[in-house]
């Protein structure tokens, strides 16, 4: 009975006792969820273009952030460094298309997937060679990202909203919405979906795989840069940041690997679910000592449970193969 109370009654009673803390928790979960959705969007774009999970997206987030900070430390003005970093991500997209993707056209998906593994470790080694292995501080002030907090009186208490979190939520939401419209409503978006369905069919109707792959990987690089700036502003830019980027995997499982709206909804579910679990459910079930570390694995548990009921994701298409 005590366990049932801790699961179904205790957390909700705690929410009712301190509604201001609940709003604070929901806000933090919302911000994390939007950033998770932004990370997941990079994975979705690559998957829609090649049908393979891009394991290198996490290290692309780190590489973009390190390039920006490294250029600034070398004496390049902040906004010029930002433009050069965008150019670097375009050059990276071209190199990936020519050196990795072009030789592997029409190869099995597992070959492309393993190629992204190789790309990951190449970027790790190259990044450490050029920028070193020490964490770096994101140039948030130089990019005029806001500092401080906004305190809102609410439900007899105060809800504190960090200005950097507000900016991150707004920028990430705008990018996700813009890219969703671009890839759903434009000719490039239709070509991308055709490439995802069949490389041979896309080539037969005159779609250039090379151009589509460069566009998509460059777009994923811009998403990685925005993610690196936002996450780096909340913490240091280091190679450990790629672990956070892999939180996109449970987001994709929930939303579907080919759905931009799914990335948004999945990100919000994981972000808010993590925070509610961290502050309410895990301490009530596991106790205060064990419950506070649940945020590192709860997203994967939610995804695993979700796979049992809808393996294709909320917005994914159920694929039926006839034998």
TrEMBL record:
InterPro entries: ABC_transp_permease, BCAA_transport_permease
Keywords recorded for this protein, A-Z: Amino-acid transport, Cell membrane, Membrane, Transmembrane, Transmembrane helix, Transport
Signal keyword on record: no
Family according to the record: Belongs to the binding-protein-dependent transport system permease family. LivHM subfamily.
Source organism per UniProt: Chelatococcus albus
Name this polypeptide is given: Branched-chain amino acid ABC transporter permease
Transmembrane segment boundaries: 29-47, 52-72, 78-101, 110-131, 164-183, 212-233, 239-272, 284-309
CDD domains referenced in this protein's UniProt entry, alphabetically: TM_PBP1_LivH_like (cd06582)
PANTHER family: ABC TRANSPORTER PERMEASE PROTEIN, BRANCHED-CHAIN AMINO ACID TRANSPORT SYSTEM PERMEASE PROTEIN LIVH
Membrane topology: Multi-pass membrane protein
Protein localization: Cell membrane
């Amino acid at each position: 009975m005590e366990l049932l109370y801790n699961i179904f009654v205790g957390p909700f009673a705690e929410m009712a006792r301190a509604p201001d803390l609940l709003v604070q928790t929901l806000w933090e979960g919302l911000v994390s969820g939007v950033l998770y959705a932004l990370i997941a969007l990079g994975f979705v774009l690559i998957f829609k273009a090649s049908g393979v999970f891009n394991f290198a997206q996490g290290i692309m987030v780190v590489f973009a952030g390190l390039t920006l900070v490294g250029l600034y430390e070398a004496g390049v003005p902040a906004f010029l460094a930002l433009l050069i970093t965008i150019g670097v991500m375009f050059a990276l997209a071209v190199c990936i298309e020519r050196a990795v993707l072009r030789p592997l056209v029409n190869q099995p998906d597992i070959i492309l997937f393993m190629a992204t593994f190789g790309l990951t470790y190449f970027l790790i080694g190259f990044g450490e060679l050029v920028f070193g292995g020490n964490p770096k501080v994101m140039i948030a002030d130089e990019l005029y990202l806001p500092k401080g907090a906004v305190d809102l009186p609410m439900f007899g208490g105060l809800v504190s909203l960090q200005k950097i979190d507000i900016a991150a939520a707004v920028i990430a939401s705008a990018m996700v919405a813009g890219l969703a419209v671009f890839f759903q409503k434009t000719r490039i978006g239709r070509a991308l979906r055709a490439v995802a369905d069949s490389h041979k069919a896309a080539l037969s109707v005159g779609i250039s795989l090379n151009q589509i792959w460069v566009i998509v990987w460059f777009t994923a690089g811009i998403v990685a840069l925005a993610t690196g700036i936002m996450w780096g502003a909340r913490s240091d830019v280091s190679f450990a940041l790629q672990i956070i980027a892999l939180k996109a995997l449970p987001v994709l499982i929930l939303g579907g690997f080919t759905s931009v709206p799914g990335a948004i909804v999945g990100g919000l579910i994981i972000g808010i679910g993590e925070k509610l679990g961290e502050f309410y459910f895990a301490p009530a079930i596991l106790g205060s000592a064990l419950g506070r570390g649940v945020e590192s694995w709860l997203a994967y548990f939610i995804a695993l449970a979700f796979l049992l009921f809808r393996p294709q994701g909320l917005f994914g298409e159920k694929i039926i193969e006839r034998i």
